[in-house]
# Entry
Amino acid sequence: MTRIQANLVLLLAGAIWGAGFVSQSTAMETIGPLWFTSLRFFIAVIVLAPFALRERRRAAVPLSGRHLTGFIAIGVSLFLAALTQQIGIMTTTVANSGFLTGLYVVFVPILTVFFLRRRPHWVIWPAAGLATLGIFLLSGGALSALTGGDLLTILAALFCAVQVILITVFAQSSGRPFALSLIQFATCALLAGSVALFLEPLSLEAILATKTELLYSGIFSSGVAFTLQVVGQRYTTAPQAAIFLSSEALFAAFFGVLLLGETIAPIGYLGGIIIFAAMLMVEIVPELGRRKIAESPVSSVG
# Structure
């Protein structure tokens, strides 16, 4: 898979997640955030299990203990991100949730420098800034006093950044995208379910009333989109992946308008254009640099 194809895969994941904000928002009318998080990832485990088993049979070597531990750590960060985002969306709008979650675009390159000691391509910094500006404008270009839900969503963005970085580390070295997805989903589902047993009620009526949201979030937002993320990140860097995954804010706003009747301020359309420009930057600028190097004459000594 080429880098461009990988980034298009990540863009598709962002689109699926954007639509998922709608289902996450409406689901909170009938079911608690912990049970919703647990059930959606149990569904994802069921969806991914056949693919993971097939991958295991074809693998040349079994998973190492290091990779297994890494996959579980990814699941823990996914659980913390999903939980804080899901609770936060109860007291904020879909657009605000999309914007604040998108702050991981900035967190990822910062954490990459501090913890992985890797310096991203210079274009990542202005592109991350543009993406953040675009997401801000998309939310209306103004933020009132932050609510508790907003603060939780910012925390979710931090956990999302950790998850993106961990996936870059372990997806590339393990070569087992389906195993990674399955283990992170199972970890997240078990953690959420264990906590939900003590904090939230659950009934069959609540599950049936939320079946559409659960199926979309479990099959598409979780099973499909997170696996697309893992596959795409095998062929690109964490900061670049974060730029393309930030498109979920654009799609969240779009589906919020289409399905929930929310509105986008005129300045929001400019924000969408800026997000798109940021994604073009991280594709075009590095490619132009490589072509310039390839076309430069080689000096000879003689």
